[in-house]
Design a protein that fits this description.
mainly beta; Immunoglobulin-like; 2 domains; 5-stranded mixed β-sheet; elongated
Length: 256
């Protein structure tokens, strides 16, 4: 019996030692959640695309490098989800956007953007800034003219010389509503103008406030003026720099 008693004491001491050893282990550290933000590389409303381009690489940048073997999910224009794999250290994602030869303007919307298993890697994903961007060919131009009242106005777009003399007609709009639309594609650098007439006599029956909503590769513009009579009511100069960036200088008073 003495031997059995001593053996029990030994077992008790061993289990007590093991129990103390477990209690002394360091607590498990839970890493805090980090926020990884994604956004368009260019925070603009309009991106210029070359006149002869068949695609454009839309770049999404991240606030920090992605973890290794990350998979990104996103949806374009509300369509099916697309998967894209990344390598360790990637801080951007390139999304190729197709451009048909007959397409002058293309609006792209990105939604449902996530990094797969982000929570397990202890970070969240947030898409910031613009989620929609319009891509416009460098030489594209479109204008919508609107006004109030019952006058029947027509709109004409044409070229102009360096001294602002009228050139040749590019497009015309002769509808019967209070909206007229003209456009041009592959426009070269130079001067352009828009003429407004009132049907059927050309001259205005009364002054009218007209608004031009214009889309170009250099951006979108809204201009309003009080037009007293028929004639030119908009003038613009298109220029392109060495990097392919397009800019327009616009006037609603005769710049000559």
């Amino acid at each position: 019996m003495k031997h059995i008693y001593k053996f029990s004491i030994v077992l008790l001491a061993v289990f007590t030692f093991i129990g103390c050893n477990v209690d002394d282990d360091d607590a498990i550290t839970v890493l805090p959640m980090k926020e990884l933000t994604a956004s368009f590389d260019k925070q603009v409303n309009v991106i210029a695309v070359a006149d002869d381009a068949t695609s454009y690489d839309l770049v999404i940048k991240f606030s920090e490098a992605l973890p290794s073997y990350s998979t990104v999910e996103y949806s374009l224009d509300g369509g099916v989800t697309t998967l894209a794999a990344s390598s360790q250290g990637d801080n951007s994602l390139v999304i190729p956007i197709s451009f048909a030869a007959t397409e002058n303007s293309h609006t792209v919307s990105v939604s449902d953007f996530i990094v797969v298993n982000a929570a397990a890697r202890r970070f969240t994903t947030n898409f910031t800034g613009n989620t929609t961007v319009q891509m416009v060919r460098q030489g594209y131009f479109s204008a919508k003219m609107t006004w109030e009242g019952g006058q029947d106005l027509d709109l004409y777009l044409g070229t102009m010389s360096s001294g602002w003399a009228p050139g040749f007609l590019l497009d015309s709009s002769e509808g019967v509503t209070n909206e007229e639309n003209v456009s041009g594609s592959q426009l070269e650098d130079g001067n352009y103008g828009m003429v407004v007439l009132e049907w059927p006599t050309n001259t205005f029956s009364q002054p009218v406030d007209i608004t031009f909503d214009i889309v170009t590769a250099g951006g979108s513009f809204t201009l309003t003026k009080n037009a007293v009579d028929f004639g030119f009511h908009w003038w613009g100069t298109k220029s392109t720099d060495a990097d392919g960036n397009v800019s327009w200088t616009m006037y609603i008073e005769d710049p000559s």
